[in-house]
From TrEMBL:
Residues 1-20 are annotated as: Disordered. This is Sulfite oxidase-like oxidoreductase. Signal peptide: none annotated. Residues 34-178 form the Oxidoreductase molybdopterin-binding domain. Gene3D superfamilies: Oxidoreductase, molybdopterin-binding domain. It comes from Streptomyces liangshanensis.
């Protein structure tokens, strides 16, 4: 009788899922450039600003009324830790932005507390980015970005802005917080784009 463990069958070996230069962690490190802002859900607001200057707002009630998804994804921090199969719940940016006239090719993601990060608008679409408000079946803890954070797991984790509160669309790329301090403007872990020039 063939002995094939279901749990193993179909999964890629660990090395294939680990981008170059990364190692695996089993805890969940907290990396914050400043203090953790206290944001109550009743005060939470998310604003999309288009290049044309149109503004679209979502309250917490608006956000959580939208259909949610439960992505399980690997995350990769530029400081070299990766964490496999993290479980989130939140709203896909495709769902959030559905029906809105999007202009501009780039997005500046903005957070409570002033953190920013830039990326091409298309990287927020096609099932690749979420506004996540639950982690590991619990409300997202404040230190990990609660009440809600961006989740863009195909880029280094600094692009996944914690305490997210808006996106400003732009015609051309501008550096966000870490990008202005020398981090790569795109940040693909598989191409090891850690710093400018990588
Ligand atoms: N608002 C905000 N978002 C942020 C950061 C930050 O300092 N402020 N740090 C980034 C970095 S460098 C990483 S690796 C991840 C860390 O998320 P975690 O603390 O939940 O592990 O958040 C990213 N998002
Ligand atoms: Mo990071």
């Amino acid at each position: 009788m063939a002995v094939i463990s279901r749990g193993f069958h179909g999964r890629r070996p660990t090395e294939e899922k680990l981008p170059p230069g990364q190692y695996v962690v089993h805890d969940f490190p907290v990396l914050s450039a400043g203090p953790t802002p206290v944001v109550r859900t009743e005060d939470w607001e998310f604003t999309l600003t288009t290049v044309a200057g149109d503004m679209h707002h979502w309250s917490w009630r608006d956000l959580t009324a939208l259909p949610a998804e439960r992505p399980t994804v690997d995350i990769h921090c530029v400081t070299k830790w990766s964490k496999f199969r993290t479980e989130w719940e939140g709203v896909s940016l495709d769902t959030l932005l559905d029906g809105i006239d999007l202009d501009g090719d780039y997005a500046m993601v903005q957070s409570y507390g002033g953190y920013t990060t830039d990326l091409p608008l298309e990287d927020l679409l096609d099932g690749r980015a979420w506004i996540a408000y639950r982690y590991d079946h619990e409300d997202l803890p404040a230190e990990h970005g609660g009440p809600a954070r961006l989740l863009v797991p195909h880029l280094y984790f600094w692009k996944s802005a914690k305490w997210v509160n808006g996106i400003r669309l732009m015609d051309s790329d501008e550096p966000g917080f870490w990008e202005g301090l020398g981090y790569h403007e795109y940040g693909d872990p598989w191409r090891e784009q850690r710093y400018q020039g990588d």
